[in-house]
Amino acid sequence: MIENPVKWPNGARCAVAITFDMDSDSLIHYAHPQTADTKIGTASWLRYDRVGVPRILNLYKKYGLKQTFFVPGWTAEQYPDIVGRIVDGGHEVGMHGYLHERFDSLSAEMEDYWFMRGLDALTKVTGVRPRGFRAPSYRFSKNTLNYLAREGFTYDSSLMGDDVPYIIEGDRGSVIELPTDWAMDDWPQFTVNSDLGYAMQVNSPDRAMDVFMAEFEAAWEYGGLWVSVWHPFVMGRLARCMRMEKMIQTMLEKGGVWFATLGEIADHVDRLIKSGEYVPYRERIPYHGATADPRSHLPRG
């Protein structure tokens, strides 16, 4: 079903990256900048990262996994100790905006400002310049690729245009896209919060895992890429994290799974491209120019 599968290392059937977006309470500060300080209930839910991240790190350590966390610059500034534990554990930290801005709602100048502010903050806290990026809320704009290329990023993991890595190209350069999908996101499975405007049905960990594992089984069968987009304050909750451990055990027992950071996956794909062993699909951004309002062509009266 995948016409152009990637040859994964050591004969692996698929690549797996269990990635987390450590947003914490940047979300409430972006959504309600004037009143965030009094929305204590929502902030306490988001600040569960202080429990979820160490729990996830301990789980990764137990199974010898190195994975990728995406962190907004503001979050890194507010919680440098937690980010430090991620770095000290040998995991990758990728960029995730500054205050979880929605880039596709900003002017090019404002997006550039917040992009650089996030990059500078994350580099300062971690001591390492990030190589990968995920747009907050997947809100990748027609200008985002220009900033990624200009700043020398290796990969992006915001888009959903394939089951395997591909190349996104723009006027200023290109990066490797490591795609995911809403089916690998914990947000639709568990999120209820009136301050942020979400009212999803809260599923059991097993029901949510049915969705995640269906995607894994397909990736394993056909040589795909499986990238979760999870949040420590959501998936790091006790019952869900317990079920995540069972998922890891199942994947390990099945075999043929390459667990890797997104940076490692991007480097592997880059080597295959340079050697001629993999010819990826290439997609130019933006896809189309601005379209006139079709209503302007309706007859009057």
How would you describe this protein?
A hairpin with a 4-residue loop joins strand 8 (192-193) and strand 9 (198-199). The chain has helices at residues 26-31, 40-46, 49-63, 73-78, 80-88, 108-126, 144-150, 187-190, 205-222, 232-235, 238-254, 262-275, and strands at 14-21, 68-71, 92-95, 132-133, 155-156, 166-170, 173-177, 192-193, 198-199, 225-230, 257-259, 282-284. With 301 residues, it is an alpha/beta fold. The chain has a single domain (9-287), classed as Glycoside hydrolase/deacetylase (TIM Barrel). The chain starts with 13 loop residues before the first strand and ends in a 17-residue tail after the last strand. It is built from 12 helices and 12 strands. The model has no long low-confidence stretch (mean pLDDT 96). Helix 3 packs parallel to helix 11 and helix 9 packs parallel to helix 11. Helix content is 42%, strand content 15%. Strands 1, 2, 3, 10 and 11 form a 5-stranded parallel beta sheet that branches.
Brief characterization of the structure:
The protein has helices spanning 26-31, 40-46, 49-63, 73-78, 80-88, 108-126, 144-150, 187-190, 205-222, 232-235, 238-254, 262-275; strands at 14-21, 68-71, 92-95, 132-133, 155-156, 166-170, 173-177, 192-193, 198-199, 225-230, 257-259, 282-284. The chain has 301 residues and is α/β, with parallel strands linked by helices.
